[in-house]
Amino acid sequence: MTKLKKLAVIGTMVLTLAATSVTAFAAAYGSPADVVAGLTGKTVESVIAERRETNKTYGAIADEAGKLEEFKDKILEAKKAILAERVAAGTMTQEEADKIIAALEQNQALCDGTGSARAGLRMGAGFGRMNGGRRGMGNAFCQVR
What we know:
Blueprint: H1 3-28, H2 32-40, H3 44-54, H4 58-64, H5 68-89, H6 94-108
């Protein structure tokens, strides 16, 4: 095999590995409750129950645990992975995904965990589980409800 062919094969393998790892990451966090649970060591059920009982956002729960920045980073990564999947599937253009990502990144600077900023909501950036046991509620970046 020539050097160019070897590089092409290695490049293809690296891209394939990167794409599958992004998909695996997105699958690891199916909802904001999953993210909070993973960061705080709580169970998903206890995070959902806390949210229902206190009417706090997932961001507020993460903030109380001192994990708001990590929460925001994980949510952004998961949403980028979802958008990448949609672009790859042809259900969204890269331009649309880039627009959503820009809005999410801009919103991240404003996010304090209270849910007051709602960039990305209804733009195709959610976890896609509206009303699924209340786990997908609040698909805005700061996780309103």
